[in-house]
TrEMBL record:
TM region(s), chain numbering: 415-438, 450-469, 529-554, 560-579, 646-671, 1105-1124, 1136-1157, 1178-1208, 1214-1233, 1245-1266, 1330-1354
Lineage, highest ranks first: Eukaryota, Fungi, Dikarya, Ascomycota, Pezizomycotina
One GO CC term, this protein: membrane
Subcellular locations according to the entry: Membrane
Species per Swiss-Prot/TrEMBL record: Trichoderma guizhouense
Biased composition (Basic and acidic residues): 1006-1019
PANTHER family assigned to the protein according to its UniProt record, in alphabetical order: ABC TRANSPORTER G FAMILY MEMBER 28, ROA1P
Domain ABC transporter: start-end pairs: 90-328, 702-963
Keyword set, alphabetical order: ATP-binding, Membrane, Nucleotide-binding, Transmembrane, Transmembrane helix, Transport
Gene3D superfamilies: P-loop containing nucleotide triphosphate hydrolases (3.40.50.300)
Membrane topology: Multi-pass membrane protein
UniProt KW NAD keyword: no
Span list, region Disordered: 1006-1031
Name listed for the protein in its UniProt record: PDR-type ABC transporter
The keyword Transmembrane helix appears for this protein: yes
Length: 1363
């Protein structure tokens, strides 16, 4: 950290020395300096300022003194009947749930004064987040027990004071800009007495304070729509919390994902905020040396135990007294984390460091007893459960602000708002055309009943599912704001509906009603039309509020959609269309009174049929007894509805809306989503750290590849939603750089500098879409020759920033073995591939966690550092010559990040070319950097050359690195614009522009160090590809490196220094590179492996098995409850055909099964497809083979229930036809899900569009619409529901006879229908069932082939070769 001229850090701190790897004699920079010396800062209630951090215009806050005494936390890790995720463990434990207590925190003590900034540091699994969450009272679990106290101003519990918590993940509305996000937050959080001008000023100063000026009018963005960078989103999250003006501010890893300069600016801001009287407590991973100086207090944890807790000025003397002297030029934060960590690279080191840790813990226990005396008067204290931080905005103000915000979010979500309006128009037109000018004969009456059901059920279902999906996306925002006492449940629900009243809630039912009513040919009566619209409107609100209740119950889409589907199934069965309501079995008949669709359908029918008379073929009109069945009263009676059934059901329907509203409000108020203590991972520590077995080889021994970029740039063409072409955006400006083998090649730059985009472009990972087109230009060459796309993909491996491609339920060894079997060439035997996997396992130091599960948020598994190692291990299985890594240390603590960088250094020393982006490099790593590319914001290069020449280059430009600063941090500071103060902004912007221009002049002028590249570039011919035999030779020649047969490292050879000129003998020739082209695993190789992997992954996740089977079985059980047994009176005809129509509901089941599973599988496949591992054919074939047995099993159970319980004919033919009909529809639903989830990554939009297709297919099937137009009859031939229903109906009905009970007969005493054949003829189902079974089989195959074709097209690179 730089100080004022002439003053060193040793003078300021007395004992802190910071890093400089090269130990260069270099001067000072002003960008990361504190103008006030640290020694002059007094920790009292007086206000004081840090230069560079503007004073926020927030009212002074209540000073809060935090005292922690003996805080210990333990958790019961025993399996529980209440946690389905532990059922496998419960079964293996013989159903024993005896407590297994694990201590997470051991007796933490601290005194944190107001006006201070406290850091909680430690390695992975040390308990940092556990301590922070416990202090903030964000952990709620019955398995958790706590001892000790956390006292805030003499009262137990943080809720007695105003506080705020910044989570590690950013929960922000993606369609709002940064400024809008903060404005709305200010309106909700600041006291109501604050004027609009003051709120605006505070927002602007927060924007400046957090360096958000340049992105203030940029939308937050998400995975679908690019917006702010990760670092900018983090700063917005902090800004939102600052607006509530908290006395105590908790932050969980606030600098994760930020570059070093941004991280420093952020902590400097927190320091300034603390100095205004706040008590700020944060966990932090990798604090750079300057950040250390900003902390007032430290709590250092190791494996849950404190080894120091007190002022930062006393930390290093404490460790020095214990015999641990801070070496010169070492970052103190990294030093204390390393001192408190257990090094398990060897048993000897592990024993030594464990002994050291125990001595540190014991020494601190003794010290803390004297340093932290027991608090007095504890017995009189009472835990205050109610927060002082009451809601800032009143009811009406909340409603106004939230309505305005929701309105803005709604009209900026074209896929949401447009989808809703389009859905209403399309459904209105399609269904209107399907029932165009519906007849008034007996078939027309049946069709009218079907049409009115579609208005209730299918249209309602689409609204229900789409709103359920949207709410699962939006609800986290409410949960965060509710937990911060900014927003209450009732204003939130009201505002959501008020905002969408104009955009959706009124237009959707109105447009649907208007189009459908007149197309269908209903009575041209204004009163009837507005009654029809009123019913549609109230039904719309009932569906919307039911969706709210579903999401309040379960916050995630799979769970909420399951509840919504169960609710919809009850609606469709109990409403009275498929089963005559008076014939529903007694034990479930009461359900009709608690389903809103019964009232909706009844109101629609009352509006249509009451007082109406239809076209009776007999003369005499209504007075003729033979025309009884054509009268409205008879139709209403046959449906089971009472007389005068219009106004009353509308009132009941409105009552349902109010009921769901109240239920949702109560649920939102009382069902809080709070953090629960996770079950422990198999490993809390990085067991792999330092256990790598690398084989360093001299560059002379290895045929290496140098990667050169000549005038390489990247532009982006985008089109707006309306198709208008937007101005071209430059992501990366022309770059000239060489990345050499044998060293670490580093790309650094602030957020928004295009680092990741450059890597993706080099790896050919950028994909164009309809609205987005990337335009790379310039030349990328390998050893001077331009490679083909297939060579690039074969020679380069790419490690993404996240570890999403790892399947959570596989162990580390299984992951590597499956990857080896899929990725390594076919000429290698299984044993050789497994041996290679074991070599890489040893090389990457993963031996100790080899049999632990990878894990994720739900499945316990290995640590973050180990996951990153596994991701790297997977990529180096094929011994790639070039390894590209995007932020390999992001999110890891200093110790783990260091071990990962040691791994990468070892891989580079083996002769590979490693190119990586990095945010916050440790100072002791800089000496390992080979070449450095510095990118300023906007993608302009500011330096591209050897790392050891970088500081001299800056020195020549007049910018000298301070003697004790991290050179990497210094370089980032040099190319980052400081947006926190006007004077600094202008100065830093000039500096950055000067550096960019100077480098542009230097590189274009022909830098002498670049000349060798140009001379040699023209000598090598184009790279061409050869066959796999040459690849085999490459392997046989020993290009795959590793350890010997005994697992011992080969003799260690020091790597050569970086070359200044080519030695052609050492370089891979184009022919050799062409020989490295590898092919995807063949179908015969890939499918068995993918199946085996998927079976293991599914078997270890019971929820996947449940998702695959329970929807079909659950629906079958509901059918059995409502339809069993089918009778043979006249009214039962409706029930028989209703049952056959309801089989079409399995179309939705297949789609929902796909939505629950396929998107995750697709994402893993996309990642592996990018690596060229296996083909689309192999993926879809293995997916299908695994899917089919579950479907067959559940459909067999369906057949049993239908034949034995419901009462279908008990014949083998009937059984197998019903099973196959169910299977065919479910499978086609799955195929449709694959199609839409491949075309659209937006799952909610895909669900909405799919729901529309499925609804139309259900309406066309023939039961709801008897006389459909010719166009729909033609389209119906594409629907599996047509063939399934026409397969089942003849076998079910053709031998049945029917009779009429008294009151069901016609005037002449005859029964309208007496045989099943008459029913089949009425509905036009009298087809050859064998032909329909064959057609369903064809449909099943064609649908899956279409899904395959779409997936293949989606993964094809147009204008290039397939990835």
């Amino acid at each position: 950290m730089a100080l004022t001229a002439g003053e060193s850090k040793e003078e300021a701190l007395g004992h802190i020395a910071a890093i400089d790897v090269e130990k260069a004699e270099i001067g000072s920079t002003t960008d990361t300096s504190l103008d006030v010396p640290i020694s002059h800062i007094k920790l009292d209630r007086n206000r004081f300022s840090v230069a560079g951090a503007a004073n926020l215009s927030l009212d002074d806050v209540e000073a809060v003194d935090v005292q922690i005494r003996g805080l210990a936390i333990s958790v019961d890790t025993a399996p529980s009947w209440l946690d389905p995720g532990t059922y496998p463990e419960l079964f293996s434990a013989g159903f024993k749930t005896a407590p297994r207590i694990k201590t997470l925190l051991h007796s933490v003590d601290a005194d944190l004064k107001p006006g201070t900034l406290t850091a909680i540091i430690g390695g992975s699994g040390s308990g940092k987040t556990t301590l922070l969450n416990n202090l903030a009272e964000r952990v709620v679990s019955s398995r958790l027990s706590q001892q000790g106290l956390a006292v805030f101003n003499g009262q137990i519990g943080v809720n007695s004071v105003r506080h705020a918590y910044v989570m590690q993940q950013d929960i922000l509305l993606p369609t709002l800009t940064v400024r809008e996000t903060l404005r709305y937050s200010a309106d909700l959080r600041l006291p109501s007495s604050t004027s609009a001008e003051d709120r605006e000023r505070i927002v602007e100063e927060v924007i400046r304070e957090l360096g958000l000026k340049e992105c203030a009018n940029t939308r937050i963005g998400n995975s679908q729509h690019r917006g702010c960078s990760g670092g900018e989103k983090r700063r917005v999250s902090i800004g939102v919390q600052l607006l509530s003006n908290p006395s105590v501010l908790f932050l969980d890893e606030p600098t994760t994902g930020l570059d070093a300069t941004s991280a420093f600016q952020l902590i400097r801001t927190l320091k300034a905020l603390a100095q205004k009287g706040r008590n700020i407590i944060t966990t932090i991973h990798q604090p750079r040396s300057e950040i250390w100086d900003l902390f007032d207090n430290l709590i250092i944890l190791s494996k849950g135990s404190p080894v120091f807790s007190g002022p930062v000025s006393e930390c290093l003397p404490w460790f020095k007294d214990l015999g641990h002297q801070l070496p010169p030029f070492v970052n103190p934060a990294e030093f204390v984390i390393d001192i408190a960590a257990v090094d398990n690279r060897t048993p000897e080191l592990e024993a030594e460091t464990s002994t050291r840790l125990e001595s540190l813990k014991a020494a601190w226990r003794i010290e803390s007893e004297s340093r932290f005396p027991a608090l007095q008067g504890i017995a009189e204290m009472r835990r205050n459960k109610h927060s002082k931080a009451t809601t800032h905005a009143g009811f009406l103000r909340q409603v106004r602000i939230l309505t305005d915000r929701t309105l803005k979010v709604t009209y900026r979500d074209p896929l949401g708002m447009t989808a809703s309006i389009l859905e209403a128009i399309i459904m209105g037109l399609v269904i209107g055309y399907l029932f165009y000018n519906v007849g008034r004969d007996q078939a027309g009456i049946r069709s009218r009943e079907g049409l009115l059901y579609i208005c209730v059920g299918l249209q309602g279902y689409l609204i229900l599912m789409f709103e359920t999906y949207r709410l699962t996306i939006d609800m986290p925002t409410f949960d965060r704001e509710s937990s911060e006492h900014c927003v209450d449940a009732v204003p939130y629900i009201l505002s959501r509906r008020l905002a969408r009243l104009v955009t959706e809630d009124f237009p959707v039912p109105f447009l649907f009603s208007l189009i459908l009513y007149f197309m269908a040919g209903f009575d041209h009566d204004a009163a009837k039309f507005f009654t029809f619209f009123s019913i549609s409107l109230v039904n719309h609100f009932a569906c919307i509020m039911c969706a709210f209740t579903c999401v309040v119950t379960v916050r995630h889409f799979p769970g909420a959609s399951l509840i919504a589907n169960f609710a919809f199934t009850l609606q469709s069965i109990a409403c009275g269309i498929f089963i005559q309501v008076d014939t529903i079995p007694v034990y479930v008949r009461w359900l009709k009174w608690v389903t809103w669709s019964f009232y909706t359908f009844g109101a629609y029918c009352g509006n249509e049929f009451q007082g109406s008379f239809y076209d009776c073929p007999e003369p005499g009109g209504p007075s003729n007894p033979a025309c009884l069945q054509y009268t409205g009263d008879y139709i209403m009676s046959s449906l089971g509805f009472p007389r005068d059934w219009i106004a009353r059901p509308i009132v009941c329907l409105a009552a349902f809306v109010i009921f769901f509203f109240i239920l949702s409000a109560i649920g939102l108020h009382y069902i809080k989503v709070e953090m629960t203590i996770a079950r422990p991972r198999v490993s809390d520590t990085d067991l792999s750290a330092g256990k790598e077995k690398m084989t360093a080889r001299s560059i002379a021994e290895v045929r290496t590849i140098d990667v050169e970029l000549e005038n390489f740039s990247l532009d982006l063409d985008k089109r707006a939603a309306n198709g208008k072409k937007l101005p071209r955006k430059t992501i990366v400006k022309p770059i000239n750089v060489t990345f050499q083998a044998g060293t670490l090649n580093i790309i650094m730059g602030p957020s928004g500098s295009g680092k990741t985009s450059l890597l993706n472009s080099m790896a050919l990972r950028l994909r164009n879409s309809i609205s987005t087109h990337y335009r790379p230009s310039g030349k990328m060459s390998f050893n001077g020759a331009v490679p083909s796309s297939s060579v690039v993909r074969s020679v380069c491996s790419y490690v993404c920033q996240d570890d999403d491609a790892l399947l959570p339920s596989l162990t580390v060894r299984e992951t590597l073995r499956f990857s080896a079997a899929l990725r390594l060439p076919s000429f290698m035997s299984k044993e050789e591939k497994y041996r290679r996997a074991e070599e890489i396992l040893m090389k990457m130091g993963l031996k100790d966690c080899a049999d632990n599960l990878i894990g994720n948020d739900l499945v316990k598994g290995i640590s973050g550092g180990e996951k990153r190692r596994v991701s790297i291990a997977v990529q180096i299985l094929t011994d790639p010559r070039i390894l590209l890594l995007d932020e390999p240390t992001s999110g890891l603590d200093a110790f783990t990040a260091n071990s990962i960088m040691e791994v990468l250094q070892g891989l580079a020393q083996e002769g590979r070319t490693l190119i990586l982006t990095i945010h916050q490099p440790r100072s002791d790593l800089f000496k390992h950097f080979g070449n450095v590319l510095l990118l300023a914001r906007g993608g302009a290069p500011a330096y591209a050359g050897r790392a050891k020449d970088m500081l001299n280059y800056f020195n020549r430009q007049g910018y000298q690195c301070p003697q004790h600063s991290n050179p990497a941090d210094f370089a980032l500071d040099m190319i980052t614009v400081d947006l926190q103060r006007d004077d600094r902004e202008a100065e830093s912007r000039d500096r950055v522009e000067k550096l960019i221009e100077e480098w542009k002049r230097c590189s274009s002028g022909g830098d002498k160090e670049q000349q060798w590249k140009k001379e040699e570039g023209s000598r090598l011919p184009e790279i061409t590809e050869t066959d796999e035999l040459d690849e085999k030779k490459a392997f046989d020649d020993g290009d795959i490196t590793g350890v010997n047969a005994d697992g011992e490292p080969l003799p260690n050879i020091q790597p050569a220094t970086s070359r200044k000129s080519f030695n052609k003998a050492n370089l891979s020739t184009p022919a050799e590179l062409g020989a490295l082209v590898h092919k995807r695993a063949s179908l015969a190789t890939a499918v068995p492996l993918l199946l085996h992997r998927a079976v293991i992954n599914t078997r270890r996740q019971p929820q996947l098995i449940m998702a695959r089977t329970m929807q079909v079985v659950g629906l079958a059980i509901i059918f059995a409850l409502f339809f069993a047994p089918l009778h043979h009176d006249y009214y039962a005809v409706q029930n028989w055909m209703g049952f056959i129509q309801e089989v079409g509901a399995f179309y939705f089941v297949g789609m929902l099964q796909n939505v629950a599973i396929y998107p995750t599988e697709r994402d893993v496949f996309y990642r592996e497809d990018d690596d060229g591992v296996y083909s689309v054919d192999a993926f879809l074939l293995s997916y299908t083979i695994l899917e089919v047995p579950f479907e067959i099993l559940s459909c067999l159970l369906f057949g049993i229930l239908m034949c034995l319980a419901v009462g279908l004919p008990r014949t083998a033919t009937m059984y197998f036809v019903s099973v196959f009909g169910c299977f065919g529809i479910v499978s086609c639903g799955e195929s449709l899900g694959i199609m839409f989830n491949t075309i659209v990554n937006h799952t909610g939009f895909a669900v909405n569009i799919m729901g529309m297709f499925l609804s139309i297919a259900t309406a066309m099937a023939g039961v709801l619409s008897i006389n459909a137009p010719k166009a729909f009859k033609a389209l119906n031939y594409l629907s599996p529901i047509r063939y399934a229903s026409r397969s089942i109906a003849p076998y079910a009905l053709r031998d049945e006879t029917f009779y009429c009970k008294p009151g069901q007969q016609l005037a002449n005493g005859t029964c309208p229908i007496t045989t099943g054949k008459q029913v089949l003829q009425l509905y036009d189902f009298d087809d050859n069932p064998v032909v329909n079974v064959a057609a369903l089989a064809g449909c099943l195959v064609v649908y899956r082939l279409l899904a395959w074709l779409l997936l293949r097209l989606a993964r094809t690179r147009w204008g290039g070769s397939k990835k």
